[in-house]
Structures are given as C-alpha cells and as structure tokens.
Protein 1
Amino acid sequence: MQGARILLIVGGGIAAYKACELIRLIRKAGATVRCVLTAGGAHFVTPMTLAALSEQPVHTSLWDLKDEAEMGHIQLSRQADLVVVCPATADLLARMAAGIADDLATTLLLATDKPVLAAPAMNVRMWRHAATRRNVAALRGDGVTVLEPDEGAMACGEYGPGRLPQPEAIMAAIAEALARLSPSTSPPTPSPTPSEVEGRLPPAPSEVEGRLPLAGRHILVTAGPTHEPIDPVRYIANRSSGRQGFAIAAALAALGARVSLVAGPVALPTPPGVARIDVETAREMAAAVAAALPADAAVMVAAVADWRVADVGERKLKKTGDGAPPPLALVENPDILAGLARDPRRPPLLIGFAAETHDVVPHAIAKRARKGADWIVANDVSGDVMGGAANTVHIVTADGVESWEELPKEQVATRLADRIAAAIGRTRA
Ligand code: CTP
C-alpha cells in the first residue's frame, strides 16, 4: 500500500467515528488519504478531526469555490487510486445506485474513473430492506465493491447484520483492491482475481495471473441452505451452515478464479475476491445460477430444500382452536444441479455434493449418474457435519472413488480447489 492514494468519503452514520481509525491504519500502511465529509457525516465527526488525522485538507462542499479553484471535483475524484466510502449509509448507497449527484460526495462518486469500495453501516432492517438489497445488487453490478457488513449488536439496540466491518477488515479489502491495480503495491501473497460479475475492479495484472492456476477461469459455487416460506413468519430450512461452500469459494478465489458464490441465508462473511449473490429460496437460487452462467466449472455445495410449500400464505397461519394442524401441501423444488447438467450452457466441469446418512458411496455413485455431474463429493451427514468444522468426503468420478481422511472444511476446500485447478486450470497438460 506504500504510496497509494485513497479518497475516503465519510457518510452520515454513527460508524463515522470508525473512519478515524481507518485513516490511522491507512496512513500506518504508508498510503495517503484525503477525506470528503458528507453533511450527514459532519454530524458525527468534524472536518477538523479528519484533517488532523489525515494531515490533508478535508472537502465538504461542491460549492466551495476556493477548493474548486485549487482542485476541481473531477480532478479530486480521479487523482486517487481508490475511492473508499466509509461508512456507506443506506441513503448514500441508494443515491450512488441511482446516480444522483447532489452533493460533493455523490458527484465525486459519479465522476470518478477509479474503483470504488463501500463499507456499509446501517440498522439491520435497513440493510435487509428490499430497496437496499436492490441498491447493493445494482452497485455490485455496476462494478462497485460493496463489503458485507458485520453482524452483531447495534448502536440502536437491535441485533443482526448492518454493523460497519472492522477497520482491519476494511483495510484488508483496500489492500486487496490496490493489489489488483498494481503489482508493485501487491502484498506478498497474490490476491485473487476480481469478479467480472460484480465487475468491480480492473482485471488482475498479468504478472499475478501468471502465478495463479485458475486465473481467467469463472467458477460458480452454491452454498448454504435454502429457506422455503410457509407464511410471512415461518419457513422450512435445514442445518447447512454454508461453511464448506464458502471455504471452497475462498480456496478457488485464492487460486485466481473469478468466483460467483450463490449463497442461501447464512451469516458468513464473503471471502475476499468472491462475488456473492444472496438468495433465500431454491427457485431464487436456480435463477441466480442461470444468471451467473457461463462458467468453466460449477461446484454445487448448497443443501437445497427438496420441497417447498405449495401455497404460501400471505398472512400468518393461525391456530384454528380445534387442535388440527394446517394442511401443508409440498411440491418439489427444481433440481438445480440436474438442470444445469442438461443446460446447453453446462459448465465443462460440473461438481455436485451428496449429503447422505447411510450407504454414502453407493448413493453417491447413483446420484452422479442420475444428476449428470462429472464429480460428486459425497459426505456422511449423519454426525454433526452440517454446521460442524470437519468433513470426511469421498470424491466419486468416472474413474472411481477416492476417499479422503477427516479434514477441517478449509482443507477439504483447498484440496478440492487444487483438484479443480488440475482439471481445468492453466497447469492442465
Ligand atoms: N441439489 C440441487 N437442487 C436440488 C437438490 C439438490 O442442485 N433441488 C444439488 C445439491 O446442491 C448437491 C446435490 O444436488 O450438489 C445433491 O444434493 P442432495 O441433497 O444430497 O441430494 P438430493 O437431490 O436431495 O437427493 P436425495 O434426496 O435422493 O438424497
């Protein structure tokens, strides 16, 4: 990060005070930081604080003629290597997504030709609101890196995702973004290739690509459970934690793949360099998978619900008083893996998982044939595998069955990623 120039836009939320810590960390890493404070942000921190910490002038108004004479807003937006929005409030994200330019911060964000990284912070309901989900998806589609907020207790007394990521995590994302821009500022370990799906940053430098076996490959990963609604307050779910799928996405990204991770409802942080698409139901997952194609490989780790409720109540189901349970008719969900196997855009390498409680390998062999997958990674879920930290898997391919010893899920992920790289990567003979 030595010598990098960061333009830091401080939005109006209680988390603005954490921007002060971020400035300290950025400067400690050898980069310079110039701050832009929104009107809302100025209610939480003062320009004086930011100026003192950054040792740079702080910009607050589009109509500050003195600033415009010294440095135009276009120039300000472009002389940085990276624009960081922290905290990115729901309002700021919405205005960014809509392309509104009614103050200095949003004008700079519209005018910049540099990558933009946003660290959101807001109330859990605001984060989960359909409007914010839409705005975040739109921004990611436009190429903005929107970090996932942390989960926990909030200043407003509620609990859930919406807290600003820790300044150290934002720093890691900044370092990663800068590493993609210039090999000379790269950290010692090569950083993953960015996603074109979220298309946030320019392609990885060829120098980095040259060392990574999956550079230039697009891999689709599904992970986590799906939730199938019964009524507005209830749903059918399963015990999948998403850990194995997220670990696989991380391991593939670390080998340079552009990874699209279609994730069911889990509270896991998005691995660095991975483009995450959050979904709830099996049908949403199927649509997100189709939208992410084409891919060089797909790893279908998600524990997709086999059934959904035929008629989802618009209102909460009430007890009738006669003790009779509601008649819940179920219908089968689409089989995403089998559908992908039949799709004309079928990825050249299609990997399914098989969660089995008994006769693991025979069931997996049958499942491979039935679903049209190239490999099946079979695991015994009779213990605490779902939600646990370790996994014992068998890799079923056309050539036979390979059984691995019990391993932490991260190691299962790295081994599988290596195997995928050997099959479709640059090192392939
Ligand atoms: N899968 C899928 N769509 C579904 C169900 C499963 O894509 N509707 C995928 C899973 O992601 C996994 C594989 O199919 O890669 C096997 O999932 P599993 O739950 O083991 O199999 P089922 O289809 O549920 O088969 P069974 O009920 O016979 O075990």
Protein 2
Amino acid sequence: MYNIYWWFFFLIFERMPDKGCKCVVKNIVQEKWEEILEFIKTEYGISKVSFITWISKLYVKRVEDNIVYITSDDSNITSNFTHIRTKYGMFIQTAIQEITDTEYEIKFETDNEPAVPFHHEVSSKAPQNQGLPLNPDYTFDNFVVSKNNQLAHATALKAAEAPGDIYNPLYIYGDSGLGKTHLMQSIGHFILENDPDKKVMYVTSDTFTNELIDSIRTGNMSPAAFREKYRNIDVLLIDDIQFIIGKDRTQEEFFYTFNALYEAKKQIVITSDKPPKDFTTLDERWKSRFGWGIIVDLTSPDYETKVAILQKKIDLKQNEGANITIDDEVISYMAENINSNIRTLEGALTKVIALAKIQRMPATKELAEYALRDVVTPNQKKSITPGFIIDVVAEHYHITSSDILSLKKDKAIALPRQIAMYLTSEFTGYNISRIGEAFNKDHSTVIYNVKKIKDLRKTDHELDETIKVLINKINPDMR
Ligand code: ADP
Ligand code: MG
C-alpha cells in the first residue's frame, strides 16, 4: 500500500516541469531547444502539418556523452519514432549542430519511466480510435496515378467509396517504398472525410503484435478488451501483414479479428510485401480468404511517373508555403538516376532542397549531383550475382539461402531453388556450367530447371506473377 503512495508522489514529481529547479543544469541543447525547433521549421521546408504532427512535441530528455536523447510525452509520437527518425533525423541533427556549433548524435528514446503506464491508464479510457494517426499528406489527391498503380488505385478508391462492399478485403502488395501505406491511408482519409463518425483504425502489424503481447503480459488490457477494441471499428487498415504471418499466436488473433469484421461487413485493407500464395507457412484456407475481395499490386514507376511524383511533392511543399524553385533539369536528373523506389526518390528531393537552403543557393543540377552523390552512382550498373538472386528469392519465400543451396527436396524449397536458377540464367549472363557451380548442381539439372520455369511461366499465371515480383526486387528496370 505504502508503495502505491510512494509511486504516486514519484509520478507527480517526475512530471513537474523542471524550469524553476535550480538543481537541474540544462545542457545547451535543452536550453536552445525552442530555437532548434524554429530552425527546423523554417529551414527545411517541412510542411506545417508535418511539423506540428511529428516534431513540435519532441523534447530533449537528457544529454550524455554527446548523445542527445529525444523523447515525447505523446504516445502517438513515440510509437512513430522509426518514421520520425528516418524522415526528420538528419534535419534534427543538423539543426542541433547549426544552433549549438557542436556535433551531437541523436537517439530517440521512449519514456520508460513509471509515468508512461500512468499516462496509458488515463488515455485507455478515451473512447475510440486508438490506432496510429494517419499521415495528413497520404491522400488520394496527393497520389499520382500511372500504369504501375492504376488498378490498385482504382480498387482503393472503390473500397473507400463503398466500404465493406465488393473489394473486401482489399489486399495490396508490392515492394517497399512503392506507395502501399500512402494508398491505404488515402482510404482512411476518404472515409473519414465523408463520415467523421466512422471508426477507422490504422495499425502496422508491429503495433498489433505489441498491443497483443502487452495485453497478455502486463494485463494493461485484458485479451477480451483487446478483441473488443479491434471488433468495435468500421474500417481496419493493417499495414505490412508479412510481420504477423508465421507468428502463431498473433496470427490466430488477427484471423479472429478478420473473421469478426468480415462477417460484420466492415472494410478490411491489408498491405504486404508479397501476395498471399507466397506465404509458404500460411494455411490454404487463409490464402483464399485473403483473396475473397481483390488482390492488387504496386510496381516500380517509370520515368514519366517519377517526374510527375516529384512535381507533385514540390507543389505540395509550395502550397504549404515553402519557397522552393527547382530546375526541370534537376527533376529529370533525379527521375533518371534513382531507380530503387519512391521513398528514395522523395528522400533525394528533400536532400536537394535542404542543401539548397543551407547553402542559400538555387537547386541546380550541380548542387543535386553533389547532394545525391551517395544515392546516385551514374553509369554504374548494379552487378547482379547468383548470391544476390538467391538472397532475394530466399527472403521472399521465408527460407534461408542455405536451404536453396542444400540438397533438400521438399517443394517449399525445390521450387524457390528452380526459380533462383532460372533468374540467374536470365540476369547474370552466366553460362550453364557457371550456374551449376553457383548452385552446386550438375549441368543437366540446371538445363532442366531453367526450362521448367520458363515453360511454367507461360501456363501458370500465378507463378508468372510471382516471378515478376521477384524480377522487380532484383532489378526494377527489367520488369
Ligand atoms: P510503402 O508503404 O509501399 O513502403 P509508402 O506508401 O510509404 O510506401 O510510400 C513511400 C513514399 O512515396 C511516400 O512518401 C509516398 O507519399 C510516396 N509515394 C508512393 N507512391 C506515390 C504516388 N503514386 N504518388 C505520390 N507519392 C507516392
Ligand atoms: Mg509502408
């Protein structure tokens, strides 16, 4: 009992602002934090909404050994630290350096002090929407439609217009950075704009997993309350489902939620890095269940699409008040040289804008070449080796590269192995005996396997689709 009182006082003192406390010596970063935030806001062309959503609520918890530990009291922010770190980490670090004249490393830290559970208890009584916040920029209006995403876009729009109707579930798959999260959240925005009372829950599969573990381990939320929370919604947007598949307990809980929502005709949107049939450990029943609505994919954008996306992102920043002018030549340079994905493309644009601002120079091609020297390697074709192909195929099928190189004969390994051989013969320019060496197989086995996959592609539509996904992962330009 006394313990509880003790905690109570501890929490109150912990949460008291330390401004008036003479015993706390503030580090210069803490002292100048307001100035640093102001610098980030004005110097890096970050939109007002993004700044308010992601940055304004950050503060410095402590500074030790030239490491600035950043945190926030807002759990929506702390649960998005990965996003904040990737998108704004460089800006925060640079701003600290600019203002304090000292180089610091930054780390994002979730507040593990007892204050957090205290906080949670209060907020768990709040009524609904306990999912993650939607990124205000991820709307249909800001999504550039082109060949590589036409079908996915059309079905997403349809699902947003008639939630729970024909495209339920909507399953969107594709490589990282191609717009899955953007499209999925556009559905959420659209539905909420038409009916703000709708309960739209956006979660990553990580959040889902962590909440489930939390509900079981700490008793913060009973398993029944956990189920209730996920049943009591109109739209479930679950991002990157691949991280749930294969985790028995979480998967089971997700299926439970899926069934409950589906039966109640609530819209379910799933994103993943691969189509359901490629999850080798997933039950056939579930592979077909995920396909009850529609399965669509996103692929790499072509040159024109990349130009249009860059233009859109620049317009967005300008509309939000940023003063940016970028030569068309720079846009073409980026669209031509950045092939990997749209996230990298957008990161490149942000880098060029940041450098132009810091150097107070126009964003010319020379400046872009300098800013992107680590991202762009002109005229240098990525060399595709059998090892790389084996890694990509193994990762895709959730097996190991040594499985592919082993003598194991079960289908879950034999098929990926044959596919890897086929792709090696297509992409490396190796002759049959070199492929044989790379896979530890004799000449005739290689010929047989390569031909088998080549023929199968003509008759087996699903396999052909999988191979296109793999080709896209190996070399997006060759699809
Ligand atoms: P994924 O979830 O597939 O990894 P994201 O949805 O996070 O990819 O997209 C990465 C970035 O690329 C986001 O900033 C997103 O706005 C942008 N993006 C992707 N596709 C498009 C598009 N068609 N039009 C405009 N922006 C796009
Ligand atoms: Mg995503």
